[in-house]
Amino acid sequence: MAVDRRLTGWGQTSPSVASWVRATTVDEVRAAVRGGQHRGVLARGLGRSYGDAAQNAGGLVVDVTGLDRILSIDADVPSVVVEAGVSLDVLMRAVLPLRLWVPVLPGTRHVTVGGAIASDVHGKNHHVAGSFGHHVLALWLVTADGDEHRLTPDDPLFWATVGGMGLTGIITRAHLSLTRTETAYVSVSTERAPDLASTMRLLEASDDDAPYTVAWFDSMSSRPQVGRGVVHRGRLSSWEELSPRQRRSALVLPAGRAVRVPDVVPRSALNRVSGRAFNEVWFRKAPRQRVDGIQSASAFFHPLDGITDWNRLYGPRGFCQYQFVVPFSAADSVHECVELIVASGHVSCLNVLKRLGPGNRGLLSFPMPGWTLAADFPVREGLDELLDALDGIVLRAGGRLYLTKDSRMTEQTLHASYPGLDEFRRIRQQVDPAGVFTSDLARRLHL
Amino acid sequence: MIDATGRPQKLLLLGGTSDIGLAIARAYVQPGSTEVVLAARPGPRRDAAEADLSAMGARVRLLDFDAHDTTAHREVVARAWQGGDVDISVVAFGVLADNETAWQDASVAEDMASINYTAAVTVGVALGERIVQQGHGVIVALSSVAGERARRSNFVYGSTKAGFDAFYTGLGETLREHGGRVLVVRPGFVRSKMTAGLDPAPLSVTPEQVAEAVRAAVLAGREQVWVPSSMRYVMSVLRHVPRPLFRRLPL
């Protein structure tokens, strides 16, 4: 039974109401697609896209989290076939006892496999492992005709679907390759850097010796501390490295979910003062010198998953997550952007800097070799002007914005930065001439 | 769609030559990416508005709109929606006749009532239908503090705005569950062509100030806004002043 639901992305901006239905079988997905909604159909998973990617105002939204079965696990050629609504959290817990590991983990485990493919998510190991799409051996897609098709990387439609924001159809199943691990722990080294240039130098130097690298940086302190940061490097721990106590839970992810943010934050808890304090504390809590240690995978990969509904801290107006990538040759523009953010007076706390490796053939896939920077800003007056100015720097540098995080870029910006866009539109026109699949993001960007 | 920073892609201005309406449109125009639909009577004022917005980089579309022709309103709204969703609809048409004439001349009173209230209702019904269908959208309804408590000196206009205000406030309640939102705007004295020749009241504002307040209120998701904001408290007091005293106030 379809019911009307008000939906937003994780950033809680631009709500819209859609008819919402939960599917638990592929046949239910096919029936929903064939239902003939005049404002289209869209799949939705766990709603972790920040903007309007998983909304379809006035149309039908098919919640696929009921497609939650793990169909088969092959421990020899490590791979798994899962339904698209399985979350990475569930998948990790299922394969860990077999000493298997999900090769690409974004900043939260609470995303579905279908969503991870549609966003072509990346993780801290992008420079060595690529994005999620690199590890998809096959996927099953219910297209506009209501039929389910098995697609492999040889099909052009596969690469329109990887990173395709759900606009080619509804992903129902996927065959994913896995990697092996001895433990669910990470050997981590952490180091502070006094300014942006040294943060970037340290990250660059880390690429060769660590499969997982990322830096947090301070976006509120001005010169000479602009962009001071904390660089984290990690690799999966071996059995030998663990203490006896850790060995008892070597392949277990902590249950987590300790704290919940109540739905009563009247306005953004973030302002100049609390934002500056957060940035200061976050910098100070990291060790000054390089320190090695062993952390649980949850603590290293998904610290925010421990705080349920952390997005509520930004208050009812929500927040914009802004993530761009610029080529390595345009490192100056990273400096320019950070300076602009610091000078703007807008508050950002979860600031991430990382070096991405080569992209894949995904036509709207985000990653490309270069520096990626993510920041998140509570929505305030004047934020549009700051983000427009950042867009300008990114475009001049030959970079682009991440659609999964986006909630405000213009069609012109998209066009100028995604060379695969025309081919994507052509394929979409071919498989979905009537435009059955659409979303608020697609309407906003005329995809 | 309205983006996360409160920017619409397409804005419909009903009463496309209203000073306040045009100030709101100007406040939203982003060169090259905003479409403005001006629904108004054809004429030099509409042409000037089109030229003005085009010069700012808006894509402007013109629709003929006559507030008195209520049977055509649904069609006008439908044409505004052609080519894609309307994100913000501004209901900005209205007339202000001399109160002394209006309360003694039925045709003048009727004209004001039918434009300010009846036409606003038929337009509102048509807009509401569209918003229910599309699951999102904001209506900016330009009410007035004159409707909050009728004054001897301006009660005919005030009565039309009282009805207008109640209708759009109620429409906002119904549209909430459908993803729509109505912002009822209650300016005090606005220095515009509508009030040209009148003595500005205290706390008077410009159309641009109203537009800025509207933009901020839409971004914040508010359902009512007074311009200037202090007017809210002034009116709150005035509503409760006993009638014998209210009568003597120089309003």
Automatic annotation (TrEMBL), chain A:
FAD-binding PCMH-type domain segment(s): 13-181
Record-level GO cellular component terms: membrane
Keyword annotations from UniProtKB, A to Z: Oxidoreductase
Keyword Oxidoreductase: yes
Any GO molecular function: L-gulono-1,4-lactone dehydrogenase activity
Matching InterPro entries: ALO_C (IPR007173), FAD-bd_PCMH (IPR016166), FAD-bd_PCMH-like_sf (IPR036318), FAD-bd_PCMH_sub2 (IPR016169), FAD_lactone_oxidase-like (IPR010031), Oxid_FAD_bind_N (IPR006094), Vanillyl_alc_oxidase_C-sub2 (IPR016171)
Cross-referenced PROSITE patterns: FAD_PCMH (PS51387)
Protein name, entry field: FAD-binding oxidoreductase
Organism encoding this protein: Nocardioides glacieisoli
TrEMBL record, chain B:
InterPro entries registered for this protein in UniProt: NAD(P)-bd_dom_sf, SDR_fam
EC number: 1.1.1.333
Gene Ontology MF annotations: oxidoreductase activity
Pfam families: adh_short (PF00106)
Keyword Transmembrane annotated: no
Coiled coil regions in record: none
Keyword list, A-Z: Oxidoreductase
Oxidoreductase as UniProt keyword: yes
NCBIfam families to which the protein is assigned, alphabetical: PRK07904.1
Family of this protein: Belongs to the short-chain dehydrogenases/reductases (SDR) family.
Name the record gives this protein: Decaprenylphospho-beta-D-erythro-pentofuranosid-2-ulose 2-reductase
Native organism: Nocardioides glacieisoli
Organism phylogeny: Bacteria, Bacillati, Actinomycetota, Actinomycetes, Propionibacteriales
